[in-house]
Write a structure and sequence with these properties.
- It is built from 5 helices and 10 strands, in the order αββββββαββαββαα.
- With 260 residues, it is of the alpha+beta class.
- Strands 1-2 form a two-stranded antiparallel ribbon.
- One of its GO terms (cellular component) is nucleolus.
């Protein structure tokens, strides 16, 4: 029979599987989640910006710099690949850093792997904004990627570019209800609708019922007014005038009946 796993062995296997998942997920990280593109708040001026070696606004040095490759702010003594050895000491601050990346302007820690590989795989190597053509060193914000054309965008032009870049995924732009040109697209099935049919069907039915109710009330009021004037006309002395007015009122009544 196989040996029963101890609690310590189960924990070790779970940790091994978790670390494997973390390592494999690093290759599929989106641009916004990379450590070199993380959000940083300056200790001095309190302005938020992209992770960088010095503050873009006041040139202040961060108290706890973050590595642009692995994202750590504290180096443990068990790591083993440190270029600067520090046995028995946890290093932070300037004791952690080893270089500044030329592409993302962020600190790289003194680990051998980070120092030798980050510059080759830095995701911000060609990160010039497609709208304003500024590079990482020319603005303080983070870098994003357009969801439609996969172009690099700075924080200032991100939403404006994506709004002008997006396209409808429908085969045609005609409304499915009335065949007019529709400018609204369903996010699920990509079907287009016009201004009138984009609203909920229940809302339009309720609105129609309200209009019909108002019309019927107005017609009833008009009928009562016409009947009143008919009685007045009957009592008129002039026969010719009475006949003309009677014909007019009968014509109006027939029109109201048709509307009703």
């Amino acid at each position: 029979m196989p040996k029963k796993k101890t609690g310590q062995r189960k924990k070790a296997e779970k940790m091994r599987a978790r670390q494997k998942g973390i390592r494999s997920a690093k290759d599929n990280l989106s641009l916004a989640k990379h450590p070199c593109n993380a959000t940083m708040e300056c200790d001095k001026c309190k302005k938020k910006q992209k992770n960088r070696a010095f503050c873009y606004f006041c040139q202040n040095l961060q108290r706890l710099p973050q590595c642009a490759s692995c994202g750590k702010i504290k180096c443990l003594m068990k790591s083993g690949d440190c270029v600067v050895k520090h046995p028995g000491v946890y290093t932070t601050g300037m004791g952690l850093v080893g270089a500044i990346c030329d592409f993302c302007e962020a600190w790289v820690c003194h680990g051998r792997k980070c120092l030798t590989t980050h510059a080759c795989v830095c995701p911000l190597q060609d990160a010039n904004c497609a709208e304003c053509e500024r590079g990482t060193w020319d603005h303080g914000g983070r870098i994003f990627m357009c969801s439609y054309c996969s172009a690099y965008l700075c924080e200032d032009d991100q939403f404006e570019h994506q709004a002008s870049c997006q396209v409808l995924d429908s085969e045609n732009y005609k409304c499915q209800s009335c065949n007019k040109l529709g400018q609204y697209s369903c996010l699920k099935c990509k079907v287009c609708f016009c201004d009138e049919h984009i609203r909920c069907k229940r809302f339009s039915i309720v609105k129609k019922i309200e209009i019909i109710h108002v019309q019927s009330v107005l017609i009833q009021q008009l009928k009562s007014v016409i009947y009143h004037y008919l009685l007045v006309i009957i009592n008129m002395a002039d026969k010719h005038m009475r006949k003309v007015m009677m014909m007019m009122m009968i014509h109006i009544l027939t029109e109201l009946v048709v509307l009703e």
